[in-house]
Amino acid sequence: MKRLHIFSGSDIAIKQRSVDVAKEIFRKSIHMFSALIPLLLKVAYTPVLILLFLALIVYCVSEWARTHGHDIPLISAVTAAAARQRDGDRFVLGPVTLVLGIILSAIIWREDAASAGIFALAFGDGLASLSGKLFGQIKVPLTRGKTVAGSLTCFAAIFITSFLVSGKTWIALCLAGTGMLIELLPLKDFDNVIIPIAIGGMYTLLVP
């Protein structure tokens, strides 16, 4: 006789959570990899910016093709692996806003300010989402699902990276508080643009 496997609702929920966490780890590992960009910009500013623009164009073409049923090897597979439930089969905007945030920060702000902004994006926003998925039991009201664990992780990550850039505790506290407040807003993927630009701008004001 064939065995019938009956999955309860809790089993399905646990499996779905495991998939969501795995996707989040994969997504945020890409996010945190962007922390290497400030170092690369120091070595070769213009070539790195050109490569970022080219990567952005290639990704947009790939996503357009994927959403129209034409997969591009590797790129479409990576995008599908990192896509969240809310993305569905739509154009996945996260990588676009991530690269735009980095490019705009590098162009608008001086080197140290841009580094502070990019680090805040890579570690503050990246670790906040991951921490929220893993430990986010307590939700923050009126934030559409943001968690206390995620917000505190964001604050700590930006504080550490900002202190390493500026060497001043009070500047790191100001930047960490600002980044945490921005991360709490229900901006979806657009926080990838706002966080590095806002943190870079505040750094410029605080460190003339």
Topology readout:
Blueprint: H1 9-33, H2 37-43, H3 45-67, H4 75-82, H5 94-108, H6 111-135, H7 148-166, H8 169-184, H9 191-206
Helix content: over 70%
Structural class: mainly alpha
Number of helices: 9
- Along the chain, the helix and strand elements come as HHHHHHHHH
Kindly report the average pLDDT value. 85
User: Which blocks of ≥5 consecutive residues have pLDDT under 50?
Assistant: none
Instruction: Report the sheet with the most strands, covering strand number, pairing sense and barrel closure.
Output: none
Would you report the number of β strands?
A: 0
- What is the alpha-carbon Rg in Å? 19 Å
Percentage of residues in strands: under 5%
Distance between the termini: 77 Å
Descriptive account of the structure:
The protein is mainly α and 208 residues long. The protein has nine helices and no strands. Helix 2 (37-43) crosses helix 3 (45-67) and helix 8 runs antiparallel to helix 9 (191-206). The model has no long low-confidence stretch (mean pLDDT 85).
